[in-house]
Specification:
189 residues; mainly beta; SH3 type barrels; OB fold (Dihydrolipoamide Acetyltransferase, E2P); 3 domains; 6-stranded antiparallel β-sheet; 1 helix; flat
Length: 189
């Protein structure tokens, strides 16, 4: 059990039997009253963000989450298919809502961590930066800098990102999966 002042950012707590991640917490005292912890919580299953105040007498339970490694197989019609890394026959699918926006940067055969709550996968932990091959990049036209010197490229996973004009088809680029932005070009080994 967590006291009101132990409810801090990055903690996972249970509210009404549902897991919430604490995004922001601020303990303050209003005039001569008792301290209050004003928090911003994100529901780990639905993604909905709510605000909640915890008072001195409040206690909450920390959520019991576990992680397991899963291997990404393929995506089809809004479903992402995974299997256990050592057992390809042990397959399961996740809807696009659970895979999140980072799901479009998953390469077939890559291993990621899955967050498990009550025997079901509730979210994926994808690396913050991934290296992907550029599948399609329109040619750069000299003097074409009205969009700030960038162009839209298509990566091997089908995701599209804005990249500098010097990026060509076949280049290896590093992409931030949280923001969906181009980071840098990577030298091929």
């Amino acid at each position: 059990m967590l006291e009101y002042n132990e409810i801090l950012p990055k903690k996972i707590i249970l509210q009404s039997g549902e897991p919430y991640e604490v995004l922001d917490a601020h303990v303050f005292r209003k005039q001569q009253r008792k301290p209050v912890n004003q928090t911003k919580l994100r529901h780990l299953i639905t993604g909905k963000v709510t605000e909640q105040a915890f008072h001195v007498s409040d206690k909450v339970e920390e959520a019991d989450l576990s992680t397991k490694s899963v291997k990404f197989l393929y995506a089809n019609r809004g479903e992402f298919w995974f299997c256990a890394p050592d057992k390809p026959a042990d397959r399961f699918s996740l809807p696009e809502e659970i895979a999140g926006s980072a799901g479009k940067f998953l390469k077939a055969g890559s291993t990621v961590d899955a967050l498990v709550f009550d025997e079901r996968v509730i979210s994926l932990r994808v690396p913050i930066k991934v290296e992907l091959l550029v599948k399609d990049a329109p040619p750069a036209v000299k003097g074409d800098t009205r969009q700030g010197g960038s162009k839209q490229i298509i990566l091997e996973t089908g995701a599209t990102v804005q990249a500098p004009l010097f990026i060509n088809e076949g280049d290896l680029v590093r992409v931030n999966t949280q923001t969906g932005e181009y980071v840098e070009r990577v030298d091929k080994k």
